């Protein structure tokens, strides 16, 4: 089936080398958890407990992309994309994860043939080393990222990847959303490894300290991997390595100085927590203040290691929130509220109007002007080239809408258009080098299981995981094909 799309005339405004495409992550699409010597990851363990996902399902099958990769690449090629962002499964490459553990040649072979096929089809691989699926053995051995021991194991894994894939990869990403991994996995506990002080959720964990320690170890790992990349001879001309941070824009709720301070606190406790050490060195004073005395301290050597360790700003951005000072005492079960002291998040203005229309999940409302403000803020604050490494939405009730109506995702089309138009509007003032939408396929959406469909491609879970392009896929092909100058 082909859906007719109408795309208005668009002048080519983005440079010919502007990358565009879609993203996925290994655990969200691959399936085949036991195939060819793969070891288990914390997401296998976590999601096999049906209490941990909305539909009680795990990523055991996902979109079966480990087996259907040729079909996936052919589909991507038909979309006209120039890049594909995906992640490597650490436990496919080193099943037990550690630096003295054996390497699995079958894992390496799989990713090499996959990358070669992408390149043969004119699609640039954008490769993430760690998108949350830590080998379970490392979690068992020393509590994963809660322990400093993880750094050497992570650096070793990165070295194995550089040695085996650097000839095929120009754009490396070390870590996807360290802020989300730290908070969802060790504060709230609704994502793997599922640790939290909330004993109804987890028998183990300390929300007051662990997220901060995990964040610190992620930053040091990233710094050490960047050092290896640069000093180990991998940083050849045209190659780049960076980190991807999830950043929501925090807009002051109203014009009061209190709300402005609260919004600045929100930014410092969510994204600047990672961006400041990476781009400017050390945690900012405001981050130290908001996150409090449990925030670990860097040695001067560590500050140097982490500072300047990312060649670009990798930005995952979805939405904007209104921020004010707390209007009531923060309850003990509101983990995020207690973590970000002095910050309250809302989506309603003082007069009750909403910041943006409801989407298919409560946390992701379209607010394109917030994206514009964020891009300006990030470039002014950190001065780096920006790659949009994820951006996307779910249509209202998308999961309840049957075929074929579900393919008419005009809500997603509008979201993509409005957000990309901000990049175009800023093209002479903020250097955005690429746009990667989330996601190529509907997939295993972590704690939401398969109930949240972010894809431009519909997956028919009832019919052998058939891939069916949504209208947005056709629209984007047309639109980006026109908006990007021809080579
Ligand atoms: C990204 O995270 C991930 O990188 C990607 O893997 C994921 O599939 C994609 O977004 C879509 O979600 O349920 O109210 O507690 C985005 C950041 C942080 C957004 C955690 C959802 C949970 C909100 N995510 N958040 S809630």
UniProtKB/TrEMBL annotation:
Gene3D superfamilies: Glycosidases (3.20.20.80). Keywords: Glycosidase, Hydrolase. SUPFAM superfamilies: (Trans)glycosidases. GO terms for molecular function: hydrolase activity. Pfam families: Glyco_hydro_1 (PF00232). It comes from Myxozyma melibiosi. It comes from the Eukaryota. Belongs to the glycosyl hydrolase 1 family. This is Glycoside hydrolase superfamily.
């Amino acid at each position: 089936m082909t859906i007719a799309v109408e795309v208005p005339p668009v002048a080519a405004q983005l440079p010919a080398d502007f990358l565009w495409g879609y993203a996925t992550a290994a655990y969200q699409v691959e399936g085949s958890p036991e195939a060819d010597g793969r070891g288990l990851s914390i997401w296998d363990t976590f999601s096999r407990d049906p209490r941990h996902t909305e539909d009680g399902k795990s990523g055991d099958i996902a979109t079966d992309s480990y087996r259907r990769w040729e079909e996936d690449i052919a589909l991507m090629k038909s979309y006209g994309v120039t890049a594909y962002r995906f992640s490597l499964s650490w436990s496919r490459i080193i099943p037990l994860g550690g630096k003295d553990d054996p390497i699995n040649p079958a894992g390496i072979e799989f990713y090499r043939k996959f990358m070669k096929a992408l390149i043969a089809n004119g699609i640039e691989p954008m490769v993430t080393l760690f998108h949350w699926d830590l080998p379970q053995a490392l979690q068992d051995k020393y509590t994963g990222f809660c322990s400093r021991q993880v750094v050497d194991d992570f650096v070793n894994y990165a070295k194995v990847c550089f040695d085996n894939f650097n000839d095929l990869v120009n754009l490396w990403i070390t870590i996807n959303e360290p802020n989300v991994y730290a908070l969802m996995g060790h504060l709230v506990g609704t994502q793997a490894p599922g640790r939290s002080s909330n004993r109804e959720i987890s028998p183990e964990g300390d929300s007051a300290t662990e997220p901060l320690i995990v964040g610190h170890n992620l930053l040091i790992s990233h710094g050490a991997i960047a050092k290896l990349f640069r000093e180990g001879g991998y940083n050849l001309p045209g190659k780049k390595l960076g980190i991807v941070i999830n950043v929501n824009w925090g807009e002051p709720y109203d014009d009061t100085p209190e709300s402005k301070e609260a919004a600045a606190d929100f930014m410092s406790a969510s994204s600047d927590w990672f961006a400041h050490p990476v781009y400017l060195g050390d945690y900012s004073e405001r981050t130290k203040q908001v996150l409090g005395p449990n925030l670990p301290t860097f040695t001067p050597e560590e500050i140097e290691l982490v500072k300047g360790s990312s060649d670009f700003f990798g930005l995952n951005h979805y939405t904007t929130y209104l921020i004010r000072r707390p209007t009531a005492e923060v309850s003990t079960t509101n983990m995020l509220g207690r973590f970000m002291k002095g910050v309250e998040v809302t989506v309603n203005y003082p007069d009750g109007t909403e910041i943006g229309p409801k989407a298919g999940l409560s946390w992701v409302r379209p607010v394109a002007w917030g994206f514009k403000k964020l891009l300006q803020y990030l470039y002014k604050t950190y001065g780096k080239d920006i790659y949009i490494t994820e951006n996307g939405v779910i249509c209202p009730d998308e999961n309840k809408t049957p075929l074929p109506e579900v393919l008419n995702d005009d809500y997603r089309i509008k979201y993509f258009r409005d957000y990309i138009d901000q990049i175009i509007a800023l093209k002479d003032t903020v250097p955005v080098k690429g746009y990667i939408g989330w996601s190529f396929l509907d997939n295993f959406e972590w704690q939401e299981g398969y109930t949240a469909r972010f894809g431009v491609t519909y997956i028919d879970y009832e019919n052998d995981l058939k891939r069916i392009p949504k209208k947005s896929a056709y629209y984007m092909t047309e639109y980006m094909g026109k908006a990007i100058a021809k080579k």
